[in-house]
């Protein structure tokens, strides 16, 4: 074997190894990036734990066979009643441009499915609209505005989708069910919201929970935390009420189904 042939084989093997290594990393980023951003924005914008995440799952969730879980997909496009899960940001941007060229403007985009028609000033460009950080950050601000108006996180979540009662009610029931389930798996999440960006970029596997050593707090610090504790208690009460509402809705729909099928009683 000549030196040239040996060099070619070595370079080819090295290139193949790089391609194989790069593919899982890209898939991991795409699958987890929405969850990373919703966790971060929940902390930054004082949104109840997992609520923004639950909305993202309802809006752009799809089954991920590798992780055996439904995960929000950042390159999701919804238009004309059809959801499209694109393989990359570039493909998603191209899809929206194609739709707009056909005169379609009622389009939902990204992790949080922000509607470009209803929120024309949300993003400067389509690239920004699909950037998970800007997409989720805008959705978080919008959700906070709705909460300021509604005074109830469950209702704000419903109005995130629509303020038309016939559309908001079934969406709210689905959202509350997803939120309740998501909170039940809170210990299995990556607590990326409390980490620096370089840690977020490390592509940590699912299921890691970070423990932080905490020193005893003073009486003054405890007093300062009291309002937050009261707010937390209020949030927990809202969650309990939301779960009760969701359970009642499911029971009503089951009774309706049984009645239609002649199974009543």
Task: Note poorly predicted spans.
Answer: 7-28, 187-218
- In round numbers, the mean pLDDT is 75
Helix/sheet category: alpha+beta
Estimated share of beta-strand residues: 5-15%
Task: Note the total helix count.
Answer: 9
Tally the structural domains: 1
**Ends distance:** 83 Å
Write down the overall geometry: globular
Please trace the helix and strand order, writing H or E for each element: HHEEEEHEEHHHHHH
The strand count comes to 6
Largest sheet composition? 4 strands, antiparallel
What gyration radius follows from the Cα positions, in whole Å? 22 Å
- Range of helix content: 55-70%
Describe the structure.
This protein has 265 residues and is an alpha+beta fold. The chain has one domain. It is built from nine helices and six strands. It has helices at 3-44, 51-60, 89-101, 126-130, 132-150, 153-161, 165-184, 197-200, 219-260; strands at residues 61-64, 69-72, 76-79, 82-85, 107-109, 114-115. The strands form two sheets. The protein has a four-stranded antiparallel sheet with strand order 4-3-5-6. Strands 1-2 form a two-stranded antiparallel ribbon. The chain is globular, with a radius of gyration of 22 Å. The protein starts with a helix and ends in a 5-residue tail after the last helix.
